[in-house]
Amino acid sequence: MNEKNVFCTTLLAVCDDKHRFTYVNVGHPGTLGDADVFRRCELFQAFKDAPDSLLPLEFLLANNIYPYHIISDVGFPLSVYVMTPYEDNGYLTAREIQYNKRHLSALMLISKSICLLKSRFSRLKMLLMQHLAQCSVAIKACCILHNICMENSDLEMLDIDEDDIPPPCSETCMDSQPICIVGEEKRNAIADSFM
């Protein structure tokens, strides 16, 4: 149950620039934090075991070759494959602020994708089912149907208000794992390239 005394489940999703879901994981209790859900999903394990199978391309930046990555909010652990914004402790540099602005702009894609999904399938806001497994199947099916609609440029008049798009999580990942130095170096190199 969440803070509103409603049973809920978590949708962990990755999308592309056309609002199509490229990965979804559904079914973890809605009370789990983002980092915990991420660590329990296949995507996290794949990044550990065979990241090249997920992100086979690399890019050159500041004379270093880096693998591609997904972007996430601060609720996820930073790594070479998962870029997060700099934590705003009140002392961010101009470079870090610029990076965070661009990061947030790109991150809004997933927020808008989920908004489109909820708008297209408004029943997702309150699923009345007996078992969590049924909810998970229904949510995954809606994600697949959403992708089909997006592939066919079916942008029927969806009632989306920009105010409905939730901001990314602002709670920092309270991760007991050590800071990923390679992830920090990569994020710093990306930030430097923006200046």
SSE topology:
Elements: E1 9-15, E2 21-29, H1 34-40, H2 42-49, H3 51-54, E3 58-61, E4 64-67, E5 70-71, E6 82-83, H4 94-120, H5 132-151, H6 181-194
Parallel strand pairs: 5-6
Antiparallel strand pairs: 1-2, 3-4
Structure description:
It is a single chain. By secondary structure, the protein is α+β, with helices and mostly antiparallel strands. It is 41% helix and 14% strand. It is built from six helices and six strands. The protein has helices at 34-40, 42-49, 51-54, 94-120, 132-151, 181-194, and strands spanning 9-15, 21-29, 58-61, 64-67, 70-71, 82-83. Strands 1-2 form a two-stranded antiparallel ribbon. A hairpin with a 5-residue loop joins strand 1 and strand 2. Helix 4 packs across helix 6 (181-194). The longest helix has 27 residues, at 94-120. It is globular, with a radius of gyration of 18 Å.
Key structural traits:
6 strands, 6 helices, alpha+beta, 195 residues, two-stranded antiparallel sheet
| Amount of helix | 40-55%
Provide the residue-averaged pLDDT.
Answer: 83
The total of beta strands comes to 6
User: Can you summarize the main beta sheet?
Assistant: 2 strands, antiparallel
Subcellular location: Nucleus
Family: Belongs to the HARBI1 family.
Protein name: DDE Tnp4 domain-containing protein
Pfam families: DDE_Tnp_4 (PF13359)
